[in-house]
Amino acid sequence: MEQKKYLGIEISRTGNILKRNLCNDEASRRIDEATGKNSWIIGFIGSHSDRDVFQRDIEEKFSIRRSTVSSMLKLMEKKGLIVRESVSYDARLKKLTLTPKAQDMYMEMITNINNSEKQLRRNISDEELEEFFRILEKIRKNAEGETKN
User: Fold this and answer.
1) Given the DSSP bridges, would you call strands 90-98 and 82-87 parallel, antiparallel or unpaired?
2) In terms of residue numbers, what domain contains 25?
3) What is the rounded distance in angstroms from the CA atom of residue 111 to the CA atom of residue 25?
4) Confidence (pTM)
5) Rounded CA gap, 34 and 102, in Å?
6) Residue burial 31-58, b: 16+ Cβ < 10 Å; e: rest
7) Domain of 131: which CATH number?
8) Among 31, 90, 105, 123, which one is most buried in terms of CB atoms within 10 A?
9) How many domains is the chain partitioned into structurally?
10) 101 DSSP assignment
11) Which of 77, 68, 75, 117 lies closest to 99, judged by CA?
12) Helix or strand holding residue 125 (H, E)
């Protein structure tokens, strides 16, 4: 008899494997100061270097509360990974900019991500990937709806 599979458990298992594999990579070990969500933020700011990035962008992109993002950014500033700079068009806003140290980390992260993506997408067609992302988006929306009730 085949055992029933649960989405939450399978997603969690897969996430654990991905984290374990990514954290064991040599480049990941060199980026030890950018653990967890800090690396997400470095990646987000680095990939949006063509525009100003603000705290609210981080909050929206990663669905993280304002207080949590604020604490994370303060710690990242203390570690010398980002700076907050005023913008001329709105005195209340501070754009987030990567320091040279974080820019170097970003470049290593891009190489690491590209290598991981190549491995993860192996033997999966474009059509299968498209379907996977469509279904994953539905699962995410279902999970968000559940927490909002």
Assistant:
1) antiparallel
2) 7-148
3) 11
4) 0.63
5) 8
6) beebeebbbbbbbbbbeeeeebbbbebb
7) 1.10.10.10
8) 105
9) 1
10) H
11) 77
12) none
Angle, helices 66-78 vs 37-47, to 10°: value is: 80
Tell whether 1 is covered by a domain: no
- DSSP-derived secondary structure for 1-43: -PPPP-HHHHHHHHHHHHHHHHHTSHHHHHTGGG-THHHHHHH
Q: Are 110 and 75 in contact (CB under 8 A)?
A: no
CA distance 78 to 72: 10
- Cα separation of 40 and 22, whole Å? 13
Q: Is residue 2 part of a domain?
A: no
pLDDT in tens, the chain (149 residues): 788 989 889 999 988 888 777 666 655 555 555 567 788 899 999 999 999 999 999 999 988 899 999 999 999 999 999 999 999 998 889 999 999 999 998 998 888 888 889 999 999 999 999 999 999 999 999 988 865 54
Residue 137 sits at the vertex; the CA angle it makes with 134 and 140, to the nearest 5 degrees, is 155
Q: Are 43 and 106 in contact (CB under 8 A)?
A: yes
